[in-house]
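Input chain follows. Return structure tokens only.
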Amino acid sequence: MIYDGDCNFCTLWVHRWQYTTGDHLDYLPFQDPSVAARFPELPRGQFETAVQLIEADGGVYGGAEAIFRALDHHPREGWLLDWYEHSPVFARVTEWGYRVVAGHRGFFSALTRLGWGRHIEPPTHNLVRWVFLRSLGLIYLVAFVSLWVQIIGLVGSNGIQSASSAMATMRHRADAQHLGLKRYHLVPTLCWFKATDGFLKFQCAAGATLAVVLIIGVAPAPCLFLLWLIYLSLTTVCSEFLSFQWDNLLLETGFLAIFLAPLQLWPRLCRGAPPSRLVLWLLRWLLFKLMFQSGCVKLLSGDPAWRQLTALTFHYETQPLPTWIGWYAHQLPVWAQRASAATMFGIELLVPFLIFAPRRPRQFACLVLVVFQGLIFLTGNYCFFNLLTVALCLLLLDDAALKPLVRAFVRKFLSPGPAQVAGAPWNAFLPHLERPLFPSSLARRPSPVNLRTWPVQFTVPLAAIAVVTALMQFSGMFRVPVPWPRPVLAVYGWLEPFRSFNSYGLFAVMTTSRTEIIIEGSDDGVIWRAYEFKYKPGDVKRRPGFVEPHQPRLDWQMWFAALGTHRHNPWLVNCCVRLLQGSPPMLALLERNPFPTAPPRYIRAVVCDYRFTDFAARRKTGAWWRREEKGEYLPAFSLADVR
């Protein structure tokens, strides 16, 4: 192929075509002296107006046809030439488009650099996948370890809700209804086989171990499947405490990641086959869905606080577990809070569309979303949600963008210093980042179907299901009646128990006041002493702290319980019963037990209104909160009343 070597726009796109066609074609600028000698019959002006393809049989083609015939040397791009040869309309439109671009090369060159930069060749994602899977392994590790230290107090035999009792009840109902094997689909949990305290701990330990194995990089696909299965099992049996949107997000991300991972025992970064593009775009679609739906639900809920941009004037104060930085953010003037809310809507409703844009706008979207998650991380405790969203944002990059960041990180934090052993493992990793991540022969042959990851017969139905379920969720969100076919509804219903295709939307309706439940015990029914929780507001002088990425499930659930009554939250009554019994697993979830020698005779719960103090009040009293008791939440009772 002969092209204009003095045109930057032509040179950029020739690099991309050369990457695609490999060694099948030679690319020469017409300024090369050998061109005139080899093709004296072709006038120079013909080369200046359009690229020329000269076939071995002597055929000469120019313009759009030359490009399509050149790309036909790659099996994935032959459809363009077929359309050109069999559709006169397509041929005329593409030739017209070629003339427009050729006549305005300067403009389209600037547009190309704006969209793609200097890396216009098809991107690779081997390093991106390597970093993403290890990030996901780290998040799984945090999730399982966080749950491990709480699960017996939450759903153990002496916990708030006994998993063994619940499974016994479900087993009895399944037998009564003759469900057979269907029970495992309707209630997908490994606790059908055993629901003892030891088995609950074993599942957490197995999940943490598999997460470490995933971080190391051994058998990533089987590890991811088992991690998804165990986390699904625990979210099912702990449904009262693991029903948050980030639990669903981890299940959905982990399920899609199974198909992104290489199907090898020990995949090599530099020699592994490229990840499936289809699954990569499904994960990007998940990020789009997460962000865009979060913005939509705020506007569609009809909450005037969001529509008037005043929600952030009390969000930092009323969110479940604020941080001390959130206290300072609450002190900002109203105009700054309104500006922050407007910026948030711009990020959640507009920036997600850049996910589907060319390389540079997509990188900009990654930067904005990561900074946005960082601000959320600083002002509120949302366990591993921010880390998981940032991990999804990494998939907006490609190897060319990520490699300098990883190289700088390795050199600064992980490369051995003079006091370290010279043969440290990261010494072996760093050279891979100094050269291409894969051999040039492999780089020149990108394959849309990775036979060493997952065959297309799995990923195509997966993509169809993910897109259709998302469209169903969007139609429900925007209240658009769509007559979905019965088979589609049946598939959607069948998938629902697995919590792996979800809708999202945080804080659709903003709470404007903070009500805290204070649990108190008494020996005589006259003098009451309060139980202190580890992280939720209690003592007004205790500074709001950082607990993320750990999630104290009980503290979080207390925030939701305060939005209703004790009749809507029977688990809270069970919690109080365990305190009357002096249950050690239950007490381990608390910061301070005011009855260290023996449990109280009576217990009750009252509600108090909590509000942040201002600078003057905190300087004077040292208190971060103002508290005002509002009344009774749960009437006083004893174990005799329970019996």
